[in-house]
Amino acid sequence: MDTQRLILFFVFVFSAFMLVDAYQSDQRAQHGPAIPEAKAKVEAKANGKTEPSAIPVPQAPAVPSAAGAPASPQAEAKVPSTALGAGGEIIKIETDLLRAQISTKGGDVRYIEFKQHKGTLDKTKPFVLFQNTADHVYVAQSGLIGEGMPNHHTLYTTTGNNFVMKEGADQLEVRLSAPEANGVKIDQVYRFTRGSYLIDVSFEITNASDKPLQTFGYYQLVRDRKAPDGDSMMLPTYTGPAVFTRLEKFQKVAFDDIDKGKKPYGTGLLEEGWVAMIQHYFMSAYLPSEKTQREFYTSKLESGLYAAGVKVVGTPIAAGQKGVLSAPLYAGPQDQKTLEKLAPGLELVVDYGILTIFAAPLFWVLQWIHGWVGNWGVAIILLTVLIKLVFYPLQEASYKAMARMKVIAPKMQQLKERYGDDRQRMQKAMMELYQKEKVNPMAGCLPILVQMPVFIALYWVILASVELRHAPFYGWIQDLSSIDPWYILPVLMGLSMVIQMRLNPVPPDPIQAKVMKIMPIAFSIFFFFFPAGLVLYWLVNNILSIAQQWHINRKIEGAAKKPAVERAEAKPSENKSG
Q1: Which end of the chain is more exposed for a tag (fewer CB within 10 A), N or C?
Q2: Domains of the chain with CATH codes
């Protein structure tokens, strides 16, 4: 296998890996049009919002009641079948990090925008995660299960419709009161905390009846299949539900899997785990407290919507007593430092796939370097240099093999001219040449194979890290997560590939030679659609490779010319002595 075949092999394996990873993640293939049926069924509202049609959700789990308490018929009741009902008023909330809207109809969180994160397509506006429009539905819902219990159809009352976190306050509370029924008073309470994207969602229950009360709650994220803004076929990322349990660990539940009724997270009551809806850079998740019995579910709903949720068993409330049923809601960026503190395994939503073993430490090093230099672009450059230094011995062996192949390239061309189309004799002569010149054409394979997982892992680190979103570099690069607006980096990368190809011997096979000439142009066009941070990484890697290969080529070629010069100098002295 000569140098060109090695490069082609590398490109093929890299492309195959990307295709397999995209297939396993069920990324772009499952992104369908936004709520196709909903557009025919929505009814306009005075506030400009729309309400999708009825949405069925699964039954509550059959849960044994507490010792001494009568079994509750609520355990067999169904969650109400409408996701977003008509009516209700909008409550506006503003904290230091976000603006949110909650409807008094069901207490749904129907809108969330983040002050510190700009929109993907329009950076003059804040990024919006939750919304309820004719084009896109993504909301968080919660309620209690059972007859007379408030759910996401209940019309709540509240003391105001505009809540702003006061200067110096650590928390902001929004309380919604449900109609009292059967001597049970229930308030749904949202608590927002300064400096946090975690929202406490709880039901405060006062059992003024003369019977004990066993409560069951549900918390669900409802979304259509629409891909987030900026999602690209060139760089597909996963959008959809995910569930984490201690037994099954982190499991993506693709929309297509939900259509097929698949439940990779298992069934039955558990005492740990969370449910999330994830997309590139951002996520939402319900995080019930540990030791709380829960059951996860995913389901396809009407109007092209999907639900991913958790049903929770509350602590029995004795007659005349009070109780609380809660499950915090995280709605924010996929910041790994924050996520790993909130719940076990939550940081896994930043999914590097099968290369997590390499990608996780690479991200840690990248973050550590950024802490010193304060610029993510510089951190990418320094990390690429560091990786090059670590793999220098392996790369040196690979480049030496390439250099030796270049030295014997003229002799290989002579063999081609001598044997023409006689491939069998040509192969035999080439093997004899390799043995004579002590060249191993396979010497460059192993170094490339060893390095490949690390470089692909770094690729995914740069692609998946929200820390690089809208992060500026220098000059015209003001967002490392977006394409180069002037396409300067892709062009430079293409030029670097041309230089790199010229350092290698020309393939004896004319088809390979043509492919090698076209590859830099094809790659440049391909990288036009890549984020600037990824192109910067590849460009720096190419420049370092060129420098290393040029140095080794000079060394090998110089060593090859030296014996010839010595022989030429020795001939006159031999003739003279003779």
Answers
A1: C
A2: 49-346 (2.70.98.90), 359-559 (no CATH)
